[in-house]
UniProtKB/TrEMBL annotation, chain A:
This is Serine phosphatase RsbU, regulator of sigma subunit. Residues 428-457 are annotated as: Disordered. The keyword Ligase does not apply. SUPFAM superfamilies: PP2C-like. Residues 146-173 form a coiled coil. It holds the Pfam family SpoIIE. Keywords: Coiled coil, Hydrolase. It comes from Streptomyces indicus. InterPro entries: Bact_Sigma-Reg, PPM-type-like_dom_sf, PPM-type_phosphatase-like_dom.
UniProtKB/TrEMBL annotation, chain B:
Pfam families: STAS. Residues 19-116 form the STAS domain. This is Anti-sigma factor antagonist. CDD domains: STAS_anti-anti-sigma_factors. It comes from the Bacteria. GO terms for molecular function: anti-sigma factor antagonist activity. Gene3D superfamilies: STAS domain (3.30.750.24). It comes from Streptomyces indicus. Belongs to the anti-sigma-factor antagonist family.
């Protein structure tokens, strides 16, 4: 009757052999009642042992049940170890998914370890129990099967209620945490937006300080497009300046200082400011490039900058151009004809700096003058093709509103960028409502209705 | 479309000066390579530094800066600079920047060395 296995334990207080599931269950229920196992643990153990034994008993093979007390490894209260012996099973029973996890000892033995209960230990514990079959002792009447099931059901319901309450509490906490995190995100996003807009405002103010707005003067309208090669740097080495001279002519400077980014802006600023001072002092246009080089090079040996100077008289449309290594400005006539004003010369920091000559042209009402930096024409790494495309695009755009022309030129010439560079495009159009000619023509208002002027904006 | 390729510099000495043969695109990426080559150029007074640009397909403002640097290198050693074999895009840039009047321009290095002043 006693199984061979002794598991290394000196005491085997219970051992029974069973041929039917109901018999095994009855024995287990009685045992667990005596051992004062809590209802929940009792139900789990009963279900687990029954599940492992059922296949054997259904097949007519007997199983044995043993219970032993075993000292806990950590010196705590002893454990109760339930052994289910299935000596005739063709293969080891599956143990996955049991309500009370089991361990396998060899192919024939399955064990469950549960903590021993204080009440059981106080009443003498397992070791005090008599051997097979287990008999109820003491004055307490053993619980009936129905009572045991009710206990188990109550335990299960309490556990379910407890879990439901816990679940609800956790869900509430999670939702509070989530809304807190969301609020934090919103707050961070708002602060980011504030910083971005403050940053953008400072940059715009800085840019405005560097790049003056178009000069408001009767007879001319002007607009500019500026785009640094690095979209994260507010300015590059390209810069422009325009202002009215005491004699009423408009002076325009376009520079392209070596390098990219804000560091090259310093060189470009030095050049535009030196040019502005010299121009306001009345230096002849043709001398300003060379003089700027003389002034600035002692301060900065590394400075290299192209510079283009244009003067336009709003009264009669006369244009004078001086140059230092800069791409030539383009005239676009109202009929679409184009001409480059190719003044020769070398820029600041170049050998033999200075404009070789000053070229003169005249804008008729409706004519456009386009000034630019090489970023506009060299995006495809071919300055010859770039210049040809500039002429064609400027001719197409010549009747557009002036504010649209520089940006549209950059957009059309930059359809494919192989070579990112700072880009300035600047357009000036002579309007037919210039200041009264100095000789004095009384019919200025009538000029607008002249058939030849009909195409002008 | 020819893909941009890194510039190479070939350094040869001539009894009348030094020849640097440049091949590729003369732009920002070429700066280190050309400056390194210029550092090793040793000229005697009256000799000529010749840059053969017949295989240079593109030259931007950075390339122009390098040419000006070469001009300074030659001048610092009482020599002069000549450029040879300009392709149309490079000739265009030299004309716009006015460097074509400062530098001696020839068809080939042989012509440039034959004409040392």
């Amino acid at each position: 009757m006693m199984p061979r296995y002794d598991g290394g334990h000196s005491v085997i207080p219970h051992g029974t052999t069973h041929r039917t599931l109901s018999c095994l269950r009855d024995t287990l229920m009685q045992l667990t009642e005596e051992l004062r196992l809590p209802a929940d643990l009792r139900a789990r153990l009963l279900h687990s042992v029954s599940a492992v034994a059922a296949a054997e008993l259904d097949a007519g093979r007997q199983v044995s049940l043993q219970v032993a007390a075993e000292p806990a490894a950590d010196g705590g209260p002893p454990q109760l170890v339930f052994h289910l012996h299935t000596p005739f099973a063709p293969r080891a029973p599956a143990l996955a998914g049991l309500p009370l996890p089991a361990e396998r000892l060899g192919g024939e033995l399955t064990i469950w370890r549960v903590p021993s209960q204080p009440a059981a230990a106080a009443s003498g514990g397992l070791c005090a129990q008599s051997a097979i079959p287990v008999q109820a002792e003491g004055s307490a009447r053993p619980a009936s099967v129905v009572e045991q099931l009710e206990q188990e059901l109550r335990a299960a319901r309490e556990r379910a209620d407890r879990l439901a309450a816990e679940h609800e509490r956790l869900s509430r906490e999670l939702s509070e945490t989530n809304s807190g995190v969301l609020a934090l995100y919103v707050q961070l996003e708002e602060r980011d937006e504030q910083l971005r807009s403050a940053h953008g405002r400072v940059l715009r103010e800085l840019e405005d300080a560097l790049r003056p707005p178009p000069v408001q003067v009767a007879g001319l309208e002007m607009a500019v497009h500026y785009a640094p090669a690095d979209p994260h740097a507010p300015t590059g080495g390209d810069l422009y300046d325009w202002f009215e001279l005491p004699d009423g002519t408009i002076h325009i400077t376009v520079v392209d200082a070596l390098g990219h980014g804000v560091t090259s802006t310093r060189g470009a600023l030095d050049v535009t400011h030196a040019v502005r001072t010299l121009a306001l002092e009345g230096h002849p246009l043709g001398s300003i490039v060379a003089r700027t080089d003389e002034i600035l090079l002692p301060l900065d040996q590394e400075l290299m900058s192209t510079v283009l100077l244009a003067r336009i008289d709003p009264a009669d449309g006369r244009v004078a151009v001086a140059n230092g290594s800069h791409p030539p400005p383009l005239i676009v006539r109202t009929d679409g004809g184009t001409a480059l004003i190719e003044a020769r010369g070398r820029g600041i920091g170049y050998p033999l700096a200075g404009s070789e000559d000053v070229l003169h042209e005249r804008l008729l009402p409706g004519d456009l003058l386009v000034l630019y930096t090489d970023g506009l024409t060299e995006s495809r790494r071919d300055p010859i093709e770039g210049e040809a495309r500039l002429k064609a695009c400027a001719a197409e755009l010549r009747h557009h509103p002036i504010e649209e022309i520089p940006g549209a030129l950059a957009a059309r010439l930059h359809t494919r960028i192989l070579h990112a560079d700072d880009t300035v495009a600047l357009a000036v159009r002579r309007t037919d409502s210039g200041p009264a000619p100095r000789r004095g023509h009384p019919d200025q208002a009538d000029r607008r209705t002249h058939p030849d002027q009909g195409e002008s904006p | 479309m020819i893909q941009p390729r890194p510039l190479t510099v070939d350094h040869t000495s001539d009894r009348r000066g030094t020849l640097l043969t440049l091949c590729g695109e003369l732009d920002y990426e070429a700066t280190g390579c050309v400056q390194e080559a210029l550092r090793h150029v040793r000229l005697s007074a009256g000799e000529r530094l010749v840059l053969d640009l017949s295989a240079v397909t593109f030259c931007d403002s950075n390339g122009v800066t390098l040419l000006v640097g070469a001009h300074r290198t030659a001048r610092a050693q009482d020599a002069d600079l000549a450029v040879t074999g300009l392709l149309p895009p490079v000739a265009k840039v030299l004309r716009i920047t006015g460097l074509d009047t400062v530098l001696a321009v020839y068809g080939t290095p042989e012509e440039a060395f034959a004409d040392v002043p």
